Structure formats: structure tokens, C-alpha cells
């Protein structure tokens, strides 16, 4: 492009791609700052504080059983995760089996539990004692939650674990067989350890999802000693007509999930460097 002057035409200097990107970035910053300022000017700070951060309810929430609810959430999550990894590994091996019925059973299981909401599965397990009188899971309600959530997560983990097994180079198995290892031993000692190193980040993501899914446990009608964070916060919120306890419960979930998210990023970065 050119600009006409008394001396003639002078070519207009074009912005380099780097400067153009910098200018766009500064425009985005300006828009973001304007939105933040607009929110600050329009939001009623006192109203927000009274609804979401009431000081007296913060103290009540922190001193009326929050540590127990937090610990229950951790127990529910990690128990279900152990069940999910164990059952998911079995399902993954069945999907890769040369025995057709094993593949069919694993495929039906995976498609069923991936298609049914975890809430319905929890409700079904909570009502099993009605259909089968006298049936109780060990360490109930923990056993019920571990089994129900673990069976749902196993359907997702199975596909992740299967992908990890397939990602292990076939030469590793062939070398193990050449050394005289049976196929089962080669799978246990060579393939699965490498597969789990590959899939550790996605499995950690599944652990984060399980932490949030533990909030569905309220449908089992738990006693106060077995409350998880969401049920605990909701009961106090309903009693006081205020959302502060639920906000505190949400921050507690962040205390669990943020370190896990940071761990996943570190592992992914480490794996990327290793490549």
C-alpha cells in the first residue's frame, strides 16, 4: 500500500507478523481488563460477600465436620480408583484376548457402563438390598461406593489401559518370548509395566473425574458420619439458606484436584522431553 504526499508516493511500512501478533495480544489484554473493570463496577460486593462468603457460616462449616467429609471424599475416590484400575486391567486383557467370548463380554460391559450415568449405577447398588434381602457390601457404605463408582470408571480405564498395551512395541514381547518367557509372564513383567508408565497421565485424569463423581454419593441416603463434601455442604446451606458452605466444599475439592492436575502436567512434560 502507498500514501500520497507532496513529494510523491511513499510506501507504507507493513507490520511484521511478530508485531502484528503483539498488537493483537495487547488488544486482547485491553478487552479483558475492560471486562474485569466492568464486573467490579457492576457487582455488589456486599451482596456477594453475604451470599457466598458469610464469615459466621465459614466458621460453622469449618468446625462442624468438614475434615471428616473431606476424608470421606478421599476414601470414596481412592477406593473406587483401585477397583477401577484392577477391573479395568482385566477388561483390557479380555478385549485383547484371542478367545472371542472374552472379547464379547468385555465389549458389552464397557459399552454398557460407559452409556449408563454413574448416578443410576449408584442408585441401583443402593437398592440391591431391597432386591436381595440380606445382601450387604463389606465396609458399607464405603464398599457400595467403591464397587459402584469403580465399575463405572473401569469401563473408561479399560480402553485407556488397552491403548497403553497396544502402544508397547511388539519387539518387546517378541524379545521376551525369545528368552523363553511365557506370554502371561511377558505381559506381567514386560508389557504392563511399560503400558502403565505410558498411561499414567490419563489415569490421573480419571482419578480427578472420580473425585468429582464422588459428589453423587448423596443418593445412597448416608448418615452424617459418612457424608462427602457436597452432601455436607448442601445440608448446612439448606439449614441456613446461604451458599457459603457449598463454596467452602468447592474449595475443598480444589485442594484435592489441583495437586493432581499439576502432577499430570509435570508427567506429560516429562514424557514429552523423553521423546
From TrEMBL:
Domain annotation ABC transmembrane type-1: ranges: 70-264
Residues annotated as signal peptide: none
TM annotation in the entry: 26-43, 74-94, 115-135, 243-264
GO annotations of cellular component type: ATP-binding cassette (ABC) transporter complex
Membrane topology value: Multi-pass membrane protein
Subcellular location as annotated: Cell membrane
GO biological process terms on file: amino acid transport
Entry-linked InterPro entries: AA_ABC_transptr_permease_3TM (IPR010065), ArtM/GltK/GlnP/TcyL/YhdX-like (IPR043429), MetI-like (IPR000515), MetI-like_sf (IPR035906)
GO molecular function: transmembrane transporter activity
Keywords: Cell membrane, Membrane, Transmembrane, Transmembrane helix, Transport
Family listed: Belongs to the binding-protein-dependent transport system permease family.
Protein's recorded name: Amino acid ABC transporter permease
Organism: Propioniciclava sinopodophylli
